[in-house]
Each structure stands twice: as C-alpha cells, then as structure tokens.
Amino acid sequence: MEEQPGLSDQYRTASPWPLLVAVGFALTEVGVFLGLFPIAVGGVLLLGGSVAGILGESGYARRPWRTLALLGAAFFALGGALVATQVPGSSVSLFETVADPNGVVGRGLAVAVAGAMLVAAGLVSQAVGRTGQGI
Q1: For the segment 29-77, what is each residue's pLDDT rounded down to a tens digit?
Q2: Is the dihedral of CA 106, 107, 108, 109 positive or negative?
Q3: pTM (two decimals)
Q4: Cα–Cα distance between 103 and 83 in angstroms, integer?
Q5: 49-56, long-range: CB within 8 Å, 24+ apart, which pairs?
C-alpha cells in the first residue's frame, strides 16, 4: 500500500512564483506609496523577477531574461514619466531635484532605478547565456 495515495512522481509540485509575485507586489506598493526608496526598489525587483520567472515556467516565454528586460524597460518608462511630469524643464533644477527629491520624484526615481536594474540583469543574463551555450 502506498504511503501517499494519489501522488506520483509524474505530477509537478506547486510553484513558488505566485507567492513571490504577491510579496513583490506588496513590497512595491508599500515602498512606492510610503516613499521608502530601498523597499520600493527591492519590491519592483522582486515583482519583475518573479513575473518573468512565472512566465518562463508556464511556457509563455521561451527565456525569462528577455521578459525581464522588457518588464524593466516598462518600469523604467513609468518611473521616468513620473519624474518628467514633476521636474521643471531647466537642467540645473533637474540635478537639484534629483539630489533632494520631493515625494513624487523620489517615488518615480525608485521605480526607474529598479527598472534600469532589471534591464541590466536581463541583458547581462542573455549575453552570458549566449556565450555559455557554446561551451
């Protein structure tokens, strides 16, 4: 008699990605809405990475790295749009505002920085994957 009836090795176990997507989304919300830069960046990184991972695992994306870079570009564009709407046109005030950001600019910078990090991670991982295929 089997110890665990109904279970076999042919069935996959549960995926960890939905939990990570939920935690990443919650951390992103808390960090962005409360203006906590490190938590916002970490939340966006976790959210983007876990969404790319779940799409790769489910078969919607062949490789998660391209998806990661595309998600990063979207986050970067969203953060850049937030910053662009709040910063005056002169370049001197742009540097002053970035050095000492107000609420919306700081939040936009957090999303843009995390997006740039996701793009960099996706591009570097793709490049490493291409060079590692020939080995």
Answers
A1: 999 999 888 999 999 999 999 999 999 988 898 888 999 999 999 999 9
A2: positive
A3: 0.80
A4: 10
A5: 49/20, 49/24, 49/118, 49/121, 50/17, 50/20, 50/21, 50/24, 51/21, 51/24, 52/122, 53/17, 53/20, 54/15, 54/17, 54/18, 54/21
